[in-house]
Design goal:
Chain lengths: 171, 376
């Protein structure tokens, strides 16, 4: 039969010598390798006591940002939703009423903003598409949950807390 | 057969005395009195100059925006001298033997770039907020011909937003003064109440002493507006055009043709517009009753999905020719349906039945949405 490569080695089928039949040297050699690994640097960390640093370009959980005055930056332009390849983002817009200028930066804002974290593939296209620097991806994971409904993130989950007007209510 | 066809063609040419024009090295024969722009539209494709103010259905429109500038490299057979300057193709009529350069002339493309920069001088570029975004002529024009940045360093002119009547919102800041709406109001309605006030850079579209417009066909100014200066207040901020599904629909209307495009989400009708052709011009004008008052699916006979250009953002997410795979779970599980682990509609706060956006008269406000955990 023609070989595919010339690197094939014939199997050594000679009977074992006395030294090899004793096995002990081979066991000692194996234990030596095991022992030497105790003194080497470990590949794992003791999560969650110890955590690895994230890469600066890590794409984690989304946040909706506020501007310097604590107003919501999102204007519900829909570019994140149209850029989203997983179609995870949905929103509904509303007009800012007179007197709400301290809450919303633009005359239009997202009254409802939802990201379905079950659909999200964390590609970061939404962050890239945003013309108002409103949506950012942080260096955190979406926390685990027992139920699927906990992964539908609304504005109360996504919006960063207002430094002037902190919200204490928890979901 | 071919010979006879050619003969009949030549006799027809003799009767009408067609002018032979060459646009970007493509010859076309048109009737005398045709403008260069319409001759180019007869050829179609890339050689058609863009137009922001010219509107074939409105008499007297054109000649204001200068985006349709072309170079006439040969005036006519009788006088072959080129025209000294670039000409507005919507206002210049063809001559026999005329040679026109549009996209083949770098001079024209450069001039058009300058025109776009001028049009955008005072434009606020608030596309994320603007309802016209996605179907805006100025957006398309600046994408194709504009520069990345402006060199303008001064304060842009701003105006207060005005409600013209109950249904139309005027954002004068976005206006490029194409005068299309003035012509529409003049030619379609029996009483024009709005026009251009002031002069030069200070000119603005306005109704004198804020007269409200309540003519039957005034809603068409929304469709003819090439930018987001005149928008539909009933659909204001309700949804982006690319998230709605445009469908052709009609109804029996005693005032107009009743042929419209409905912009729908599910069974909700968010917006009604006239049907637009490939140049963004209205095929047939529609009345205000159809446009503003018939916002329910049962008012309309839906003909089918509107054909949208594949390159338009409106066509995103419109999956056509999708074949759903055969569902086998029922067969395998001896007739039992798979367990639904989550119904998104029971969890999602978007598109709640309690908030019916299409039924709200104007734009939705914070009062229309209940608060969730103190956040809206």
């Amino acid at each position: 039969m023609q070989t595919l490569t010339n690197r094939a080695q014939p199997v050594d089928r000679r009977p074992m010598t006395f030294w090899e039949k004793m096995y002990l040297p081979a066991i000692a050699k194996g234990m030596g390798i095991t022992l030497s690994h105790i003194f080497k640097k470990k590949a794992t960390v003791n999560y969650p006591e110890e955590k690895r640093p994230f890469s600066p370009v890590f794409r984690g959980l989304h946040v909706l940002n506020r501007d310097e005055e604590g107003r919501e930056r999102c204007t519900a332009c829909g570019l994140c939703a149209v850029a989203c390849p997983a179609e995870a983002i949905t929103m509904e817009a509303a007009e800012r009423l007179p007197g709400e200028e301290h809450l919303y930066r633009e005359e239009k804002y997202a009254a409802r903003y939802e990201i379905n974290m079950l659909r999200c593939i964390f590609c970061g296209f939404c962050e890239e598409a945003c013309p108002k620097q409103a949506i950012y991806m942080t260096e955190t994971f979406a926390p685990a949950n027992y139920q699927r409904k906990g992964f539908i993130y609304g504005k109360d989950d996504l919006l960063i807390p207002d430094p002037k007007n902190p919200i204490t209510v928890k979901k | 057969m071919a010979f006879r066809g050619m003969q009949s063609f030549s006799t027809m040419a003799e009767e009408k005395k067609l002018f032979k024009v060459t646009i970007d090295n493509i010859p076309v024969e048109v009737e005398p009195g045709t403008t260069i722009l319409n001759a180019a539209r007869k050829i179609g494709g890339d050689v058609v100059p863009p137009a922001m103010c010219y509107y074939s259905k409105l008499q007297g429109s054109g000649g204001k925006c200068r985006t349709c500038l072309v170079k006439v490299s040969k005036g006519s057979d009788a006088d072959p001298r080129p025209m000294p300057k670039l000409v507005a193709s919507c206002r210049t009529t063809v001559m026999d033997g005329m040679e026109v350069a549009n996209i083949t002339s770098p001079e024209v493309l450069d001039a058009r770039k300058g025109v776009v920069e001028f049009l955008l001088l005072n434009h606020p570029l608030d596309c994320p907020v603007c309802d016209q975004a996605g179907e805006c002529d100025l957006q398309d024009l600046s994408y194709e011909h504009g520069t990345e940045a402006t060199r303008y360093e001064f304060k842009r002119r701003t105006f207060e937003k005005i409600d013209i009547g109950d249904h139309i919102k005027l954002h004068m800041t976005r206006c490029i003064l194409c005068y299309r709406c003035v012509f529409t109001a003049d030619q379609l309605t029996n009483k024009r109440e709005h026009g251009v006030l002031n002069r030069g850079e200070a000119s603005e579209i306005g109704t004198y002493i804020k007269n409200s417009l309540d003519n039957d066909f005034i809603g068409n100014v929304i469709d003819v507006c090439p930018v987001g200066a005149l928008t539909d207040r009933t659909a204001r901020f309700k949804n982006r055009v690319w998230f709605l599904k445009p469908v052709d629909a009609h109804r029996d209307c005693d005032k107009c043709c009743g042929k419209t495009v409905l912009w729908m989400r599910g069974d909700e009708v968010f917006r009604v517009t006239a049907r637009k052709d490939k140049y963004g011009e209205v095929e047939e004008f529609i009345c205000d009753t159809c446009r503003f008052e018939k916002k329910e699916a049962k008012d309309w006979v839906v003909e089918g999905p509107r054909k949208v250009s594949r390159h338009s953002v409106i066509s995103q997410g419109h999956y056509v020719g999708v074949h759903k795979p055969h569902e086998t779970i029922r067969e395998v599980m001896s007739g039992r349906d798979p367990k639904l682990l989550m119904n998104i509609h029971s969890v999602s706060e978007v598109n709640q039945p309690s908030v019916d956006l299409s039924k709200i008269d104007g734009p939705a406000h914070s009062t229309d949405f209940p608060k969730i955990n103190g956040v809206q």
